[in-house]
Write the structure tokens for this entry.
Amino acid sequence: MPDLGIRIEGLRKRYGKGDTAVDALKDVNMTVAPGELVGLIGPSGSGKSTLLKCLGAVIEPTAGRMTLGGQTHYDNGWKINDLRALRRDRIGFVFQAPYLIPFLDVTDNVALLPMLAGRPNGIARARALELLDALDVGHRAKAQPSELSGGEQQRVSIARALANNPPVILADEPTAPLDSERALAVMRILEQMATQYHTAIIVVTHDEKIIPTFKRIYQIRDGQTFEERGQGRSL
Amino acid sequence: MWVKVRFDQGRSTGLAEGLRAGIVLRSRPLEPFVGRVARVEAVSDSVTEERFAQVAFESLPAGVSVGELAEVTLSLPRTAAALLVPNASLKRQGDRAGVWRVEAGTLHFAPLRLGQASLDGQVQVLDGLKAGDTVVVFSEKSLTNDSRIKVVDALAGGSP
Amino acid sequence: MISLAGRDILHSWSKFVLTGIGLGLLIGVTLTMAGVYRGMVDDAHRLLDNSGADLWVVQQDTQGPYAESSSIRDDLVRGIVGLPGVGRAANVTYLTMQVRNGATDVRAMVVGFEPDQPGEPSFLLAGRQVTRGHYEAVVDLKTGFALGDRIRIRRHDYTVVGLTQRMVSSGGDPMVFIPLRDAQEAQFLKDNDAILNERARTAANPALNRPGVPGLLEAIQASQASNHSVNAVLVQVRPGFVAEDVAEPIRRWKHLEAFTRAQMEEILVAKLIATSARQIAMFLVILAVVSAAIVAFIIYTMTLGKIREIAVLKLIGTHDRTIAGMILQQALGLGLIGFIVGKVAATFWAPVFPKYVLLEPADAVRGLVAVMLICALASTLAIRAALRVEPAEAIGG
């Protein structure tokens, strides 16, 4: 069990060369178990986005090791060829805004990922409906994204992140535009999904409203992470 | 006063003295006069390929001047009743004249021996057709043996 | 897998359809221009077919009678009829002029023909062939005249006794067939003032106006007023003879020029139509460029409007080639809509176009292929933009 989830060891990201080189990440160490929800907190300029992009296999780190769901995909160099497939099958993304595809209906927005992974349309859509029901937006399955409220869209985007049952979900400021009631609602959902689907969830945030709810927090300052106990206030 | 009339040699079959003539003066186009062929000239024009005849008025109208232009139409004596085809149906294949017949939906060229032609466009058929044969009169383009045809009531442009 | 391109098109269908209609009208114009060219070539072929001739005998060193003016004496035909291989030979005159019917004027090609000879109208839609020696006419439908109309050509009035169709000059003017003698007079006899002027000059010339020779002046003036020229002799070759073999002696011994069907085609199509063909080709190129620009612009704008979605799609794991394929399909879809609209529009307005438009199925197929290629090319601009998008852009901050 501890080898599933996500483990980051000694991650470094350097921009530039020689004297003008800058280390956006110096020495990042993180472990998140399946079903666990942790916060990643830091001010702007702390390397938060860079870390998120490394975790998301969108940029290449300079050194270190990343292991996801038991498979080491980076060890001082990429260890797998198809990063796109990695992102598609093993990482779920939740963004600041829902970013649903406007010309696909709600079901197809969620079913898109399994379809891209090669699942037949019928099975992909069934999976999508299952997730939408779990998130209480099943009744909007046939609607267009533009017809949904902000909160409903957010839930659909969470369903999309879960669609291929990835071992980890990266959530980038998911509560930033929301008021406290809605923010807490989103956190409740994320916690529920983490437990239900055994997914490790990392929430990058600086939203004061939700920070007290994390049981475990990673602070990031000047490119380094520090683990802390969170307040763990119940949702 | 006579009208000196020029006839195309190719069309002057039957030109003879005594034929009845209709005369229309250029100055009075709506007033036809009657006359007769008084004399057929012996000398024709080989350059213009025309024959000449002199036509006399039955009663000379007043005010006719020398040098005035007139249009003269001669009536030839009746011919025996015969099979007629409209001249629009006459076509040529090589050096044979004939018509296109329709038999059981297909086209055949029927060479004919032709007789007199009238001014209203009917031509005598002396040989080559029987009464009741179907003949193509009007078509939308030139016909050949393998033309696909469709028989209709009327073609664009007016009633036949 | 669902069709991303299809969903996107359905989602913004009104923008697509409107652009497709605009593009379609451009394509319709393009197809019509190609049809005009085909129509001109067809006109030329019909002109040659309808004359019923295998050889055209014209003035030496000219390329008449259609491409250039040619004038020959009308008694030359007798010498030609006697040559071996000549089946029938007849004089014809051609003159493009205004023909009046009541208050309206129509530009027509007046053809002077001899009855039952090459040069006469080869088929009729209605009425009959000319039976009288003068002042009757068979006209083409395109003149707008009807049976029984009295039309005026130069000095005389003619009654329309027969109607035909698709008898046009190489310039597309409808033909009016009148007896040869009348046509010669119309073409070669001058108007009254010019005749009086000629007569006065002749009378003032002491060499021609000799008191001691009675009748000389009248004879000269009569010869000046006569018209013994025609534009060409149309020859039908006897079965079993080759046209070129019949043409050769005419050229060599008769001091005339003789063109076979193949040579006339070359003159009409290669030379007469060549300038128009170049103009049309230029138009086609310009229209193609404009169409490509429109498609490129629209697809590019639509893609730019989707940059965020494209970044998200790339981040969550969509292949570059899937995204490129989506854009390409949209461009092709736009092209297809445009082509259908254009083809329908061209078919609709072809009959009312002033020039004869001949739309051939092969041209439509070529047009479709060209449109698809242009759209594919036009989409490359947008595809490049889409491929340059970094998945990381979806992660803000």
